[in-house]
Amino acid sequence: MDKIKCPHCGREVELSEAIVHELSEQVREEERKTLKAQFQEEKAKEIAAREKKVREDIEAENKQKDKELQKEKQEKLELEKKFARQLEEKDKEKTRIKEDARKDADEKHRLEKLEWEKQKISMQKTVDELQRKGKQGSQQLQGDVLELDLEERLRDAFPYDEFKPVPTGIRGGDIIHEIRNKHGNIAGKILWEAKRQKAWNKAWLTKLKDDMRKIDASDCILVTDILPTNIRVYDRIDNVWVTSYEYAIKLVSVLRLGLLNVAIAKSSASHTDEQLKDLYRIITSDSFRNKFEARREIIQRMRQELESEQASTERRWKRQAATIDALSKNNREIYGELEAHIPSLKPLGNGEILELQSGDEEDNQTKF
After folding, report:
1. Domain-embedded: residue 313
2. Domain ends where: 204, 236, 268?
3. Domain end point (choices 245, 268, 291)
4. Which of 258, 261, 181 is nearest to 219 (CA)?
5. 24 in helix, strand or coil?
6. Are residues 229 and 321 in the same domain?
7. What residues contact residue 175 under an 8 Å CB cut-off, 6+ apart?
8. Which helix (H) or strand (E) holds 208?
9. Is 177 domain-assigned?
């Protein structure tokens, strides 16, 4: 018989073999369960550890593969770069070879090309010169035809008059028309110029007028197929008669009659004193009139310049006056603000305001 000790009272209790066997079985079953639980727990841990190791191994393998893949990519990139450099070098080499070949070809044919270009330039200059001469010849021919036609019409209309070519140095005239009466006495001279251009040019007037004075002509007429916009038949612009071919003969007929009448008046005048006759002849001459007209034009230009300077000066004075008024108003406003804050401040008079405008800082400090 076995004995066991009671855990509560401490007394020993006898057990039978059946109870012992039953208890032993229970203990063994509990131990089996415990061992089985421990085994399953250890097995689960082992499985978890194995799974962890497998995962770590897989991760390590993946990392290694990634490294190898990155390395392969880098090597592939390096190879591509190297291949690109090789292609670039080959292209450069091909380009250099082509450039050398082209230079050799250029050098080989340089003299021939220069000679051909020189011939081409020479031929082009020849063609341009021929075209220019042809154009000038055409314009000159047109001008000569107009001048001859005008002169022929004048000769037919005024058989007593004389027509002379313009002397060298008179670039603004074509015909010198000497007006004579039936007795051959000269009553005056008219300088003609014929123009056939595409547009009107006012500079023609000044040149023709200057040339008229060089030959001491009585008057000048500009005949042109292009009239200014404000002229339909004829008109006098800056002491120059301007007309068209259609009305040229009619215009000069009136001028010619006037010059003949003036000549008759001059010849009919009687003076007993020879010096007075000379003086009268000088005063009534076209040369004297032209000189006075030239002086009048100079005076007119000087007057225009003076008026322009005067207008500019007046505008400058107005700007300065406006600036002074603005400064005076600003001084009064400033001093008014000071008076509002300092009642005992002495008011400024007009003279004192002017001193403030002049910038006399010491006087201003004394007054303040």
Report:
1. yes
2. 268
3. 268
4. 258
5. helix
6. no
7. 147, 150, 151, 154, 163, 164, 165, 166, 191, 192
8. helix 203-214
9. yes
Query: Which residues contact residue 219 at a Cβ distance below 8 angstroms, ignoring those fewer than 6 apart?
Result: 188, 190, 191, 212, 241, 255, 259
d(Cα 24, Cα 1) in Å, to the nearest integer? 14
pLDDT confidence band for 354 (50 / 70 / 90): very low
For residue 348, give its domain range: 271-368
pLDDT tens track for 176-227: 999 998 888 888 899 999 888 888 888 888 888 888 888 888 889 999 888 8
- DSSP assignment of 311-358: HHHHHHHHHHHHHHHHHHHHHHHHHHHHHHH-TTSPPP-HHHHHHHHH
pLDDT of residue 177: 92
Q: How far is CA 238 from the centre of its chain?
A: 37
Cα(first)–Cα(last) distance of the chain, in Å?
137
On whether both 144 and 176 belong to a single domain, the answer is no
Residue 345 has pLDDT above 70, yes or no: no
What's the confidence (pLDDT) of residue 368?
Answer: 36
Tally the domains of the chain: 3
pTM of the model: 0.41
Separation CA 122–CA 109 (nearest Å) = 20
pLDDT classification of 355: cutoffs 50, 70, 90: very low
Report the C-alpha gap between 22 and 3 in whole angstroms.
Answer: 15
**CA gap 236, 345 in Å, rounded:** 73
For the cut 70, the answer to whether the pLDDT of residue 117 exceeds it is yes
Pairing type for strands 234-237 and 175-180 reads unpaired
Question: Does residue 96 belong to any structural domain of this protein?
Answer: yes
pLDDT digits (tens, 9 = 90+) for 315-328: 888 888 888 888 88
Beta bridge partners of 235: 242
Q: What is the dihedral of CA 107, 109, 115, 119, to 10 degrees?
A: -130
Joined together, the tokens standing for residue 360 give: 């006399």
Structure tokens at 202: 């006012």
166 DSSP assignment: P
Residue 187, classified by CB atoms within 10 Å of its CB into exposed (0-12), middle (13-18) or buried (19+), is buried
Contacts 24+ apart (CB under 8 A), 156-164: 157/249, 157/252, 157/253, 158/252, 158/256, 160/184, 161/256
